[in-house]
Every structure is written in structure tokens, then in C-alpha cells.
Amino acid sequence: MFSGLSAFPLTPMNEDRIDEAAFVGLLERLNAAGVDSIGALGSTGSYAYLTREERARVAKIAVEHAGNTPVIVGIGALRTRDVLNLADDAQKAGASGLLLAPMSYQKLNDEEVFQHFKAVSAAISVPLCVYDNPGTTHFHFSDELHGRIAELPNVASIKIPGVPNDPQEAKARVERLRAQIPSHVSIGVSGDAFAATGLSTGCDVWYSVIAGLFPNTALELTRAAQSGNHALAQQFSSRLQDLWDMFGRHNGSLRCIAAGAEILNLVDSPCLPLPLVSVQGEDRTRLARLIEQLELS
Amino acid sequence: MFSGLSAFPLTPMNEDRIDEAAFVGLLERLNAAGVDSIGALGSTGSYAYLTREERARVAKIAVEHAGNTPVIVGIGALRTRDVLNLADDAQKAGASGLLLAPMSYQKLNDEEVFQHFKAVSAAISVPLCVYDNPGTTHFHFSDELHGRIAELPNVASIKIPGVPNDPQEAKARVERLRAQIPSHVSIGVSGDAFAATGLSTGCDVWYSVIAGLFPNTALELTRAAQSGNHALAQQFSSRLQDLWDMFGRHNGSLRCIAAGAEILNLVDSPCLPLPLVSVQGEDRTRLARLIEQLELS
User: Fold this and answer.
1) Which sites bind pyruvate (chains A, B) (predicted)?
2) Alpha helical stretches, state H, chain A
């Protein structure tokens, strides 16, 4: 489950409710394309913006419509109490794995984060992926802390943010982390622009935002990397440079991917929870053109 | 309400429930001391860690036990939908004012924050304080954005983080903000170590963490500053330098103030929501000594 391509779909919603029909459509797209796993309620799935009840419902729908594809469910919350409840709900819904980011309001220290993961890992019965995303959590993992957490029961993967652009530096970075963690724990790269580099320098899995909307495009890159053709994977990535640049201009991928889903009428517009707003204006027009020209699918 | 000393008490809790009796004790302490307002469910009140139902209950208790002291209630949440509900609940509970921080998971842009405040300011009927706290929200207000928001209906105050240590720079910083906002909107300083400097350089109010536990100590400083005796206010602040240093060592004031309340048996221990843990070890012993030596009350 924690290898190859893991696709993170949007959770389409409006101010009143989750758009369940549109969510099912996204899931069926991923299942048909043959991604290796589906990451429901990741950052792209706006887990942090939903109630416990809504998250339980989304987890259930994801599992029901994923076919044979394993579903990883995001269980992050500010409070340990709430994470334990969310883990329970996700497991009852049939999640094959769980994804946990150390969300913060008060800045957390290493020991608090370790104890948080320890409490959760002791309470669950499916594999856990440690979600390292300083851009949203504002917590910076040291490799030493990753090592301590990776020894906990049920920990099976670490989702790291982007790797350095330079392949040598990227390789060194992944090797440093690999040296701290048990061999059964996989390392996954996120930050889609870094996928080709990450997969060529020791990452086992790509936790992918674009795969949630364009699974075939992401699979093409992943399969090239998995077959050892890293130059081809890099070519596929370079083709998408305009998309990576757009992510850079809009505080990350979410508002762009939401606009993409809206443009393709796969979801109603708007599909993000306020105050978040999908990309509008010139970049929206540019995105529509990119989807067509690059045949993103 | 948005002038003088505003005291922000802890919301004591454990993993099961809010400790209502202890919370009432803290409120009565503030009321007896004669603070100018009480800020319930601020960052110190762990608003971000509680459910809607718990927050409605805390707001109700705060108003019921504040005597004649006006109560400002924190209504921040990641989602505009939830903030509107929380504003409703707080007003029904009898809040005299509301406090809103632009909490974020996905990094927000200026227009999203403006529209968020616009939606809330249009839906409320009591004054609103804009809560600028980049340390927890990771959103950085420009003075220009403060100016736009300060023009919205019901906006009555801005709670800024610390001012520069240098009095000239602090004065310039407050004057720059003052020039952007209407005269009926007050400016309040937070970051307790900066209170004396802030109050001597144009801030109208001190939004204070220590006042939530040591209201008399904070009032002494505030009244000196209000009477124009800024040298004395600065002396009072310098006396507390060991406390400010301790805040610096523990990612801010919360874990220290929680330890202080635990040491004084005003709350059960632990009183913070996991994963947050109050100060332990040597600094806890040091804090107990400081409370005694400095006669903090």
C-alpha cells in the first residue's frame, strides 16, 4: 500500500455539505486508472476543515468506492483525543492505512509530537504513515525524531515534503533519513514537482496531489521511475513545469487542483471550504489551456 | 471594553472534559481584581482545541461568572462556516465582544482573510477584535490589510503581537498602523514582555496572558502606564524578566502559565489538552520560586 503511486483526491464541498456524488466520481476515476492506493482526507482532501461526522462519512464513501484499491485515511487533528476518535472512525469505515500529521496551533516540541504518535500508534490496528508537512503543520521533524517515531508499532511509512532539486543532494537527504529508520518503513515523496527526483533517489512512493485528479498522467511518470527509466520520469515532470510554477504562485497545489476539477466539471464550482478559494482569473484560463495542451488525464 | 487590561484565562481541562469549577475560580479571581475585560477562549484558553459545544459552554460560564466585567470570546476556526456558528453561539451566551484570528491550515492569502473577516463582521452585532498572531496562525497581516479590515462594520480593535523592543521603533510601528485605521479602532499589544513598551508607545490596551492568572501583577503595570508613569511600568516589566525569558524557552507563554496555575492548585494537573504539556522539570521549580519571590498574584 505504501509504495508506487498514492493518489490524494479532493473532497468536493460547499458551505452546506460534502458533494458526495462528485467525490464518488473522483474515486471511480482513480480506481479505473489503477493507482496503487487512494489517500482520502489528505491535505488535498481538506481533512482539517471537516467535522468528525463528515470525516467518518468521507472515509466510508472512499472505502466503498475504491474497489480493490487500498484506502489511506487522514486522521490529523490538533488534539490527541480527537485523533484517537478519528482513527477509530477510519478503521470502522474500513481504511487499510492511516495518515497522521502533527497539526498545530500552539507550536509543538519534539517530545509532544513523539508522545502524540506513540498514543495513536498504540491504539490502532492498521499501518500508519507519518505525515511530515511543515508547510501546513509548521512542525519541523528532525531525522532523529523520525527515527524514534518509525520504531513505534504500526508505523509503516513516512511522507516527506519535497526533496532538494539537485539529485545528489536529494539522494543524500533520503539516505540520511533511511539510515535513521527501520527497513520496513517506506519513504514517500510529496510536493509533486519533486516526485521524479524523489523516486529516482530512494523514495518508495509518491504521495501525489495531481494523481487525485490526473491519475493517468501521474502513473506514466511513476511507472517510468519504477522501471528504472529515471530520465523519462524526469522528462514527464519537466513537461508539467508550468503546472509546478502555478502551484508555486498559489501557496501550493490545492487551489490549482480545485480549479482544475471545476474546469473539467468533475465538481461544482466552488468546491473548496471558505475562506479557501480556487484559482481564478488569468491563471485559471492558463490552467484550462494546460490541461488541454498537455492532455492531463 | 477594548482598553486598559484585558485578561485571558486558561480553560482548564483534561482528556475527558472541561474543569468548569476551576474555570469559575479563575474567572472570580479576575473579577475580584478588577481587570477591564476578560478574554475567554483566547489562545491561552485553548479555543482551537475544543468542540463547538465545549466552546459554547465555556462562553456561557465566562459570562455568568464575570460579574460586571465585559467578556470577549474567541471565535477563530479554520472554516468561515464554523466561525459564523461560533459567533452565533458566543453572542447567544452574552459575549460583549468577539475575537477572531485567521487560523490556517492551508496558508491563506490577503483576499481570503479579508473576505473571511467581511463575512463575519456582516453577521455579528457586537464589536469585533482582529487577532493578529502569526506565531499560531502563520498569517502575516500587512498594515494595508489591517486598514481594509478595520473599515468593516463592528471592527473595534486590533490585537497585535509584540512591538519592537526599542521604544523609538515601537512608536514608529504603532504609528504606522494607527495611520491606516479609523480612530475608533483601538490597538492592543500582546506578548506580555512587550506590554510596558506597547502601552507607552500608543497602544490602548494590553491583551494579557499573565493577567489571566496574575491579574493584580498585570494591573499594577497597566495602571502605571495609564497614569503616564512609563518608567514605573517598565520597572514592573523588568522585574518579570525571568518570566519573559521562560516564555521564550517554551514556545510562548501557555505551557508556563498552565504550570503556574497547576503549582498554585488553581487547576488540576495536567490542565492542558494533549499533546500540549505544561512546563515540567527545572523550569517548573524555577517558576514556583518566581511566583513566591515576585509575589505574583
Assistant:
1) 44
2) 20-33, 52-64, 80-93, 110-123, 134-137, 143-150, 167-178, 195-200, 215-226, 230-239, 241-249, 254-263, 281-293
DSSP-derived pairing of the beta strands A128-131 and A155-160: parallel
pLDDT for res B57: 98
Whether this model's ipTM surpasses 0.95 comes out as yes
Closest alpha carbon within chain B to A16? B81
Q: Which residues of A touch B10 (CB under 8 A)?
A: none
A102 neighbourhood in chain B, CB within 8 Å: 275
Residue range B101-116, pLDDT digits in tens: 999 999 999 999 999 9
Q: What angle is formed at CA A241 by the lines to CA A201 and CA A38, rounded to 5 degrees? A: 60
Question: Are B105 and A43 in contact (CB < 8 Å)?
Answer: yes
The pLDDT score that the predictor gives to residue A1 is 87
Q: At which residue does the C-alpha cell 484559482 appear? A: A279
Supply the angle between the helices A254-263 and A241-249 in degrees, to the nearest 10: 120
Amino acid letter, residue A7? A
Return d(Cα A200, Cα A163) in angstroms, integer: 11
Any catalytic annotation for residue A159?
A: yes
Intervals of chain A under pLDDT 70:
none
Query: b/e per residue, B112-147, with b = 16+ CB within 10 A?
Result: bbbebbbbbbeebebbbbbbbbebbbbbebeeebbb
Sign of the Cα pseudo-torsion (A76, A81, A87, A93, in order): negative
Q: Percentage of chain B surpassing pLDDT 90? A: 100
First-to-last alpha carbon distance for chain A, in angstroms, is: 23
d(CA A63, CA B98): 41
Cell matching residue A279? 484559482
C-alpha to C-alpha distance for B142 and B158, rounded to whole angstroms: 13
Structure confidence by residue, pLDDT tens digits, A47-85: 999 999 999 999 999 999 999 999 999 999 999 999 999
Scan for cell 464513501, then name that residue: A61
pTM: 0.97
Q: What is the pLDDT of residue A41?
A: 98
